[in-house]
Amino acid sequence: MHTPPAPAHPSAPEQGLHLMAKPIGPLCNLDCDYCFYLEKEQLYPPREKFRMTDDVLRAYVQRYIAAQDTPEVEFTWQGGEPTLLGLDFFRRALDLQRRYGQGKTIRNSLQTNGTLLDDDWCAFLARHQFTVGLSLDGPRAIHDQHRPDKQGRSSHEQVMRALRLLQQHGVQFNVLVTVTRDSTAHGLEIYRFLRAEGVRHIQFNPVVERMPAPREQVIGLHFATPPKLAARAPVATPSPVLASEVAVTAQTVAREAYGDFLIAIFDEWVRHDVGTVHVMNFEWALASWLQLPATVCLFAPRCGKAMIVEHSGDVYSCDHYMYPDYLLGNIAQDDPGALAASARQQAFGAAKEEALPDYCRRCPYLFACHGECPKNRFMASPDGQPGMNYLCPSYEKYFRHITRAMNALGQIVANGMPASAIMEAYKGPLILKTTAVTK
Q: E strands, 43-127, where?
């Protein structure tokens, strides 16, 4: 079993529901070959305009704020590429937030590929204290391998220009790195490149996609729809699904390679950059070791509170489940709080925990993983139960590797010391005094 220290500070209050907006749907000016959202264009009529109307925007802002029982409301704007809507759209959104704010603190975050950001955009984002997520996969050769524009041209120079503008205007931003099969071999190169460019907040997201079935190809999908999790299945005959038997896409990370990628970066970070570079993947893990609630749905025991609203106003169970089977309602007619509390959404969120194979329940790292995203749980466990996460070998290797450092970090934080003190531990014998926990 793991041995986390007592929490260094009280547990954070439970977050309210999160309703992320896709105001331009899947439209984008880039053509990233691993993007799971571009293909959603095929699920709409040929002449769909993919632009959130003012009426839908008003309903979204008003109903979302009213549904929150927390003093803060976080608006997240994503796509596709939301900056294609132009600044006036977001000015109207802020006006509506002020009108319907009910005295609550309103925060906004924007996920963007950065290619359209200029001084006007960055001045606006800084003035209104937006947090920006900038998609950047690393140095030019790595980034451009999967993130060309619609004409197949490089997007790297435009994104780097956006990064520097965000820095110049003092916009709070983090860099979102999408990790592919190819880039798993270049973890340190990517990390050191971003660090040298002055990036101080980084998040790594692995590509995990399966090839579509014939029925999915017929409707224009390039990736398989997510597996449907049901109650825990009994063990029949041990027949694990081997990675070679699952048709994943060429961009999908190898099952263990993502763990090696994280470990390489962690070893660099824990020796040199704690407190100066914030890698969200490591901070999520530390929260688990501190016995704090998960700050992302990936590693929470259950999911279901992070829904999305499409440009049309349609509300779906999750960003990764934007398919007809997971349509909950429409923001123009429905209360998002009621949709989140509906039996369908509650069952969707509970399935993450209830469908865990016995192998996962016995895992000493269950407290940090909780099966990760249900979208990636399409493997069978070694004893034949369905619902094993494709990335299980990576997480098992990664969590085992970081256990000693996480225990030490937990003790350091619990004693009121800065987390950066861990770097001194790696220079001397202090790290040897911590309890090493292995599976």
A: 72-77, 105-112
Q: What is the rounded distance in angstroms from the CA atom of residue 58 to the CA atom of residue 96? A: 7
Nearest to 17 by CA among 73, 61, 97: 73
Q: Is the pLDDT of residue 16 over 80?
A: no
- pLDDT, residue 29, reads 98
* 407 closest CA partner among 392, 422, 427, 428: 422
Residue type, 67: A
Q: What is the mean pLDDT of residues 342-358?
A: 96
In order of 77, 357, 374, the CA distances from 56 in angstroms are 14, 41, 30
What residues form DSSP beta bridges with 261? none
* Average pLDDT of the residues of the chain: 91
Determine the Cα–Cα distance for residues 313 and 359; give it in Å rounded to an integer.
40
How many angstroms separate the CA atoms of 37 and 212, rounded? 14
Distance CA 1, CA 89 (A): 51
33 is catalytic: no
How many whole angstroms separate alpha carbon 266 and alpha carbon 336? 39
Distance (Å, rounded) from C-alpha 221 to C-alpha 224? 7
Query: Exposed/middle/buried for 339, CB within 10 Å: 0-12, 13-18, 19+?
Result: buried
DSSP line for 191-243: HHHHHHTT--EEEEEE---BPPPHHHHHTT-SSPPPPPP-SPPPP-S-----G
Number of helices (H) and strands (E), helices first, in the chain? 15, 12
If one counts every other C-beta atom within 10 angstroms of the C-beta of residue 3, the result is 12
For the chain, give the percent of residues with pLDDT over 90. Answer: 86
Alpha-carbon gap, residue 205 to 7, rounded angstroms? 27
- Nearest Cα to 206, choosing from 36, 367, 31? 36
State the average pLDDT over residues 82-88. Answer: 98
Report d(CA 44, CA 184) in Å as an integer: 34
pTM score of the predicted model:
0.92
Integer-rounded Cα Rg, in Å, for the chain is: 22
Q: What are phi and psi of 103, to 5 degrees?
A: 75, 5
Beta strands at 131-135 and 306-310: parallel, antiparallel or unpaired: unpaired
CA distance 98 to 105: 10
Q: Which two tokens stand for residue 243?
A: 């990675």
Residues 70, 92 contacting (CB under 8 angstroms): no
Where are the strands (E) in 78-125, listed by range?
Answer: 105-112
Q: Pick the catalytic residue: 31, 149, 267, 319? A: 319
